[in-house]
Amino acid sequence: MIPERKRNMLTARFVDTVAIPGKYHDGGGTGLFLRVLPSGSRQWVQRIVIHGKRREIGLGSPPAISLATARKLAIENKGKAMLGGDPLSEKHAEKVKRLTFAECLTGYAEAKLSEFRSEKHRKQWVSLLDRLALPVLGRMQVQDIGTKDVLRMLEPHWQERTVTAKKLRGQVEAVLTWATVKGLREGDNPAAWRGNLKELLPAPGKVAKAEHHPALALGDVARWWAALSEREGMAARALEFLTLTAARSGEVRGLTWDEIDFGEAATSATSATPKPLWTVPASRMKNGKPHRVPLTPEAVAVLRALPRLDGSPYVFFAPRGGMLSDMTISAVMRRMQEAEEKAGRSGFLDPQSRKAAVPHGLRSTFRQWAAEQGYPRDMAELALAHWQGSEVERAYQRSDMLEQRRAMAAAWAAFLRGDVVQAQNVVRLNGP
């Protein structure tokens, strides 16, 4: 006599043709049943007791998972549960380990990108991986990615775009490290440099080509400054302020009025000259440290002449009240160069590359001027908010040489106007 549960077992034909929604138990004693949804889709499900609790495990859908395969999986799961195992947890763990690099990038971004200084840097970080890593690694499961795969991604860029490729390698290493810590992969990191890629790729310093931003020649500074003063618009004023302070574009574009101290409160009760100051918070600095910038009378004049927009905290605001874009400031210099070329002149070119100067290159122009005028290296580097020396040396360097830099900034402003500047003296070239 055939046992009742055996007589109620499903058949392959029934599985292929059933269309009425419901639960159809296999009757084999494993808890396997076929769930038919109102939409017509079908799912294999196993109801099983694991560690004393009744649980359900999905086993896939026909026809991809046949009746015979579903029965085999159900028997294996029941056996594991009877021996004290947890087939449901094993299934979840296996599913997690099958995450792709693209999925891990999403997880890493959600967990870590809030640490970045700005939305711009977050977008740049993800964009590099989108363009160069995902086409090669994106669909690969992180557990399967090996050194050969990372090499396949890096080699097309390592010789010609070494700086970019170096950043790419570091970012891929970070994502894979995150995946390892999350338990999504095991083993050494295939994107690691030491003891791994270092033995297979030439050192970046041996092949990298310096990527300098085109700078303004010192001999063109006065003419360029005069041409800039004739330009109208918020971006032109931002470029003036950027030049006077030797600041980065992002620092100037993100400037808010509460970062400015015109020094009037401290001198209202005395006859002392105000000492205006701009304090850039650590959150907006590349080195993560607050930066004090002495403001010259010329820089203050730029600020005083600006309108203020209700509802916008920015000093140099865009038409809708937001922050100016980097391209807006760059466009001012581009139009100045185009005007020069239209007039039949070569314009404002970097003396080495012969490329048109750009806003960030003005910092190099300032640095060259400071060196030629004999200003101390540390003072010039502090003005540019560059890291100085080792960590030990920085720990002992507590002063930011603010007042000495104030005098240097005044000399730089005079040079922009067309003066020859010595470290402590200003000599007018074109008469009083």
TrEMBL record:
Alphabetized UniProt keyword annotations: DNA integration, DNA recombination, DNA-binding
Top-level taxon of the source organism: Bacteria
Keyword DNA-binding among record annotations: yes
Pfam families assigned to the protein according to its UniProt record, in alphabetical order: Arm-DNA-bind_3 (PF13356), Phage_int_M (PF22022), Phage_integrase (PF00589)
Residue ranges annotated for the Tyr recombinase domain, each copy included: 211-409
GO molecular function annotation: DNA binding
Gene3D superfamilies assigned: 1.10.150.130, Integrase, DNA-binding domain, Intergrase catalytic core
One GO term of the biological process aspect: DNA recombination
PANTHER family membership: PROPHAGE INTEGRASE, PROPHAGE INTEGRASE INTS-RELATED
Membership in a protein family: Belongs to the 'phage' integrase family.
Protein name, per record: Integrase
Protein species of origin: Rhodobacter aestuarii
